[in-house]
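From the methods appendix. Each design record in this collection lists the tokenized structure first, followed by the designed amino acid sequence. Records were kept in a plain field format so they could be parsed without special tools. The example shown here is representative of the layout used throughout.

RECORD:
FOLD TOKENS (379 positions):
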């Protein structure tokens, strides 16, 4: 049974659909609550793709978790991987993860990417940037290292978002050690805010506090794998994995403690026993939405295109566990309706993006992963 906050009600509609059978081949029409669409495979043959970004010239960048950055151009996957990346430790859930394009890319050519890397103490999330020149990154600079590094292959985060004012937001996980998310001297279990060159903004909430990491913007986060800007506003939303239940959607506010592991709607794996002190506590934020059982959310975007007028401003979230796409209607910072799409049809949906062409794009985290495009059907 899925539990939701009492102040709103969710209507879920399970919609069947199909996977397009070849590159650029149209699938059957899906009739959902507010749109008719088909799913088209743009490219396949990707090895566990994780992040997707769009270049101003129409090309796409896509990461493969084993450590390759690829370019899709003219509807085809270029067989040549982008060179110049630093050493990447592809272990467990780690590897080459998200990718983002600088808002002023046409002038500066900066590409940003997150990845897991080895160092003193084990593994940790790092973020670097490089100038894209042909099929190579030049002038590569490491901008951020999550410290301390630790052993184990879980909960690296790690989405990237350029927000209002050009700030770079980096999402992290607790690395599988719960208590780290409440420790402000530890980057794990937080969202980071930096300038685009890696400098720490002077107005970050913990800059002047002794014994804290000044890069931290929020904390008490378990494993954030989705972050998105509300179109036309300065508001940022994020979601994070819960354990056995308790996946959360939150509004990102600087200095906020989101509670993990002190409060959660999730339960311990296997035993189902309670975690922490309950589901609420003073000075710890409540989620806008939570899912029980867990859907294992990954990737999220607010739809900002014109091809689906009835989806304008809706929040879309990919899901790994139930292999589906969730559409959420948002009103006054509340979720007022939920629709579940494509359940079990595409595979593990790792990323969701609103493309500059007005289509929705999805990545499937499979050994033969795909980039899929959702296209409207008239009538």
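DESIGN:
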């Amino acid at each position: 049974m899925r539990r939701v906050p009492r102040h709103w009600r969710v209507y879920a509609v399970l919609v069947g659909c199909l996977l397009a059978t070849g590159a650029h081949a149209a699938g059957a029409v899906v009739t959902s609550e507010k749109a008719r669409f088909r799913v088209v495979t743009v490219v396949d043959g990707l090895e566990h793709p994780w992040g997707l970004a769009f270049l101003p010239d129409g090309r796409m960048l896509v990461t493969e978790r084993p450590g390759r950055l690829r370019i899709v151009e003219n509807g085809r996957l270029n067989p040549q991987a982008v060179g110049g990346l630093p050493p990447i430790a592809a272990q467990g859930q780690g590897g080459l993860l998200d990718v983002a394009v600088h808002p002023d890319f046409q002038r500066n050519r900066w590409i940003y990417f997150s990845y897991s890397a080895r160092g003193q103490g084990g593994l940790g999330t790092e973020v670097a940037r490089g100038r894209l020149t042909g099929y190579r990154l030049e002038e590569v600079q490491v901008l951020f290292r999550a410290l301390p590094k630790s052993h184990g292959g879980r909960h690296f985060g790690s989405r990237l978002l350029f927000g209002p004012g050009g700030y770079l937001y980096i999402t992290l996980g607790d690395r599988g050690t719960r208590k780290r998310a409440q420790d402000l001297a530890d980057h794990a279990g937080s969202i980071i805010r930096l300038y685009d060159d890696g400098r720490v903004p002077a107005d970050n909430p913990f800059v002047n506090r002794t014994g804290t990491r000044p890069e931290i913007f929020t904390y008490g986060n378990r494993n954030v794998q989705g972050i998105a800007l509300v179109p036309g506003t300065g508001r940022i939303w994020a979601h994070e994995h819960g354990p056995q239940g308790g996946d959360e959607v939150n509004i990102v506010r600087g200095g906020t403690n989101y509670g993990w592991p002190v409060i959660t709607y999730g339960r311990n794996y296997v035993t189902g026993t309670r975690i922490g002190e309950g589901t609420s506590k003073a000075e710890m934020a409540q989620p806008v939405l939570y899912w029980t059982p867990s859907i294992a959310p990954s990737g999220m975007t607010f739809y900002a295109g014109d091809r689906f007028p009835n989806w304008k401003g809706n929040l879309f979230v990919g899901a790994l566990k139930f292999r589906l796409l969730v559409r959420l209607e948002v009103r006054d910072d509340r979720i007022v309706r939920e629709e579940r799409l494509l359940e079990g049809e595409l595979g593990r949906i790792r990323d969701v993006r609103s493309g500059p062409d007005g289509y929705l794009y999805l990545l499937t985290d499979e050994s033969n992963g795909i980039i899929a495009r959702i296209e409207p059907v008239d009538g």
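APPENDIX NOTE: The helical segments are 105-108.
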